[in-house]
Inverse folding.
């Protein structure tokens, strides 16, 4: 059964810093990997999708990479802002089942 | 706004009540999903519908009953729930349930069982 781990569970940094969120998975036979953002009490907003044939995706200040062989993905946030404060979730498809398998998320606080 | 709308946003129900959660997507997708998000746990997939056919039931208790009358609408019927069923219930859709497609989520229904 696929397991997804996100490290760190929580992170607090001053505004302006660059930061990296980590996601690891146990079964490298994955298809897509998606990074989501969740604000308190709200739904999920899709940030980046890395499809099975890709290794990287970029959107504005966000860059996500995927290394299937090592079972890892990273989300890089450049020049962090207080509005980036949220929980960031990593999720992937694969393993013979439909739907996404999620990690527990990284709770990020950007201090003004 | 992601194109996936869930109602109600909040629901409080007693253990003997019957209620339904509704999800509607305006993205022209063919696959719809129910997920449960409990405190301190990862999101858990509950049900998958692809072209109105249920393709996944992730060992969900029978007190949760899904219904998908068409590709745009998904319901979750609730009856005789337990307090531990209190959670955020999230609906999602994707082009189909193929594994290369991107999922879009609604804002969720916060359910409290008393």
């Amino acid at each position: 059964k696929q397991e997804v781990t996100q490290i760190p569970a929580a992170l607090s940094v001053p505004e302006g810093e660059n930061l990296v969120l980590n996601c690891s998975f146990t079964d490298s036979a994955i298809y897509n990997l998606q990074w989501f953002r969740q604000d308190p009490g709200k739904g999920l907003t899709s940030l980046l999708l890395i499809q099975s044939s890709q290794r990287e995706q970029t959107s504005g200040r966000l860059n996500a990479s995927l290394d299937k062989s090592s079972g890892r993905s990273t989300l890089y946030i450049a020049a962090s802002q207080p509005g980036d404060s949220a929980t960031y979730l990593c999720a992937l498809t694969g393993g013979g089942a439909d739907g996404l398998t999620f990690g527990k998320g990284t709770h990020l606080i950007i201090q003004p | 706004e992601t194109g996936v709308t869930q109602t109600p946003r909040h629901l409080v129900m007693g253990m003997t009540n019957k209620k339904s959660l509704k999800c509607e997507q305006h993205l022209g997708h063919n696959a719809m999903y129910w997920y449960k998000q409990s405190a301190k746990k990862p999101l858990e997939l509950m049900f998958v519908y692809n072209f109105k056919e249920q393709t996944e039931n992730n060992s969900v208790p029978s007190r949760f009953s899904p219904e998908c009358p068409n590709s745009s609408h998904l319901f979750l019927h609730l009856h005789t729930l337990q307090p531990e069923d209190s959670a955020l219930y999230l609906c999602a859709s994707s082009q189909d349930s193929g594994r290369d497609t991107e999922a879009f989520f609604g804002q969720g229904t916060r359910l409290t069982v008393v």
The longest strand of chain B covers residues 18-25. The interface with chain A takes residues 2, 4, 6, 31, 33, 35, 40-43, 45, 48, 50, 55-56, 58, 88, 90, 92, 97, 99-108, 110 of chain B (CB under 8 Å). The radius of gyration of chain B is 13 Å. Chain B has no helices and eleven strands.
